[in-house]
Amino acid sequence: MTSEIVLILAQDGLVNGAIYALLALALILVFTVTRVIYVPQGEFVTYGALTFAALQRGYVPGVVLFLIITGLIAAAMEIRRATLQSSPSRSLFSASLYAGYPLVLGMTLYYITGAPKSVAMQVLVTLAIVAPLGPILWRIVFQPMATANVLVLLIAAVALHLVLTGVGLLAFGPDGARTEPLLDVGVNFGVISIPAQSIATIAASLMLIVMLFWAFTFTLRGKALRATAVNSVGARLVGVRPEMSATVCFLLAGLVGAVSGVLISAITTIYYDTGLLIALKGFIGAIIGALVSYPLGAIGAIAVGLIESFSSFWASAFKEALLFGLIIPVLLWLSVTRPMKDEHE
Description:
globular, mainly alpha, disordered C terminus
């Protein structure tokens, strides 16, 4: 193996690792706040990539109709909840958001503007379509069973993944898609030329991670999310609404998935069922962080990207086995260390 090949593999590994790091952070965020192992996180990557590809081809993707339908279902659930409350104003306001936003967005895209022409607007519209699915699906699927145990929530998450995969097939079709790169230039680094799209992917991932760190550290809503993650009962006692924290958490997870889809869509071909495999690789990084540590999760995800890249060169037939086999020693280590840590606490 020459130094040139090492640099090429390392570049691919860092790009993939940056995407997996975003997914790992989203998975950890959702789990710590809501105890949901968010299996459908990969579907948001798929929806983001295929929605962006559809807009580049000049047509409005069918997932907009799914957004409208689920928004109306969530609004109906909020209206029913309002009828059971003595002060229903908050639920009615939520219902107006769940129903109004998708309807306004759908009418704008279908009857007024159509698919935008500029790349910047295509990215913004992609985020506007995909990210709101996070809180809407939280309201429909997980909020009614928020007090259930982790196993029940996991079963619901797997069922939601299957539903979203089927919706992806209906909305985007069975054919894969790859978008035009956001930056179609190359940067020479020694003996290799690195595509600017790869640099943009790593930079955007780092920027999003830094922004999330800043939000969790210095903003009131971010501190509320951290408080809910540490102790939901204590957070409720000091005035933090766990339902609102969960809604914000799922919105951030949807946004992270949509951004990841836009970034990865020019690097690899995405199909309607690609999301699960991508999410599982991010989940390995989250497991390395024990589903609680953001820095360890990000580092683990980058390690997953590098292992995937180099193993595809040395033993491509066993690439997936090597990746998922990485979970075993990590789980063994956690099974040994976590009980001792809990007893010490």
